[in-house]
Amino acid sequence: MQIKPLADRVVIKTVEAEETTKSGIILAGSAKEKPQVAVVVAVGPGGMVDGKEVEMIVKVGDKVLTSKYSGTEVKVDGEECTIVRQSDILAIVEE
After folding, report:
1. Rounded distance between C-alpha atoms, residue 20 and residue 40, angstroms
2. Which of 1, 39, 43, 71 is the most exposed place for a label (fewest CB within 10 A)?
3. What is the predicted pLDDT for the residue at 31?
4. 29 φ, ψ to 5°?
């Protein structure tokens, strides 16, 4: 099954948190924070949203930073994804 977001919605998949710190310390499960970095899986077409024209800036494959508690979590084919509005995306991560 594939999700096709509508309007200004974006489907993202959270990037797994690092198991160790840069200094080599292994983190316990309870010490890990919910990661805010995600990969864009699907992008809606944009268009008129709430009376305003919305142009989609993000594209599939972009790494993005999102608000900590934004979006709606869904499970598709056993994988957890989140559907957010483009305005909930804070930044695109460039490496």
Report:
1. 25
2. 1
3. 47
4. -55, -40
This prediction has a pTM of 0.79
DSSP 88: G
Please report which confidence band the pLDDT of residue 16 belongs to, taking 50, 70 and 90 as the band edges: confident
- Cβ contact 26:41 at 8 Å: no
Q: Which residue has the tokens 């084919």?
A: 77
What would the two tokens of residue 33 be? 């924070």
Q: What is the DSSP letter of 57?
A: -
Is residue 58 within 8 Å of residue 43, measured between CB atoms? yes
Give the count of beta carbons closer than 10 Å to the beta carbon of residue 56: 16
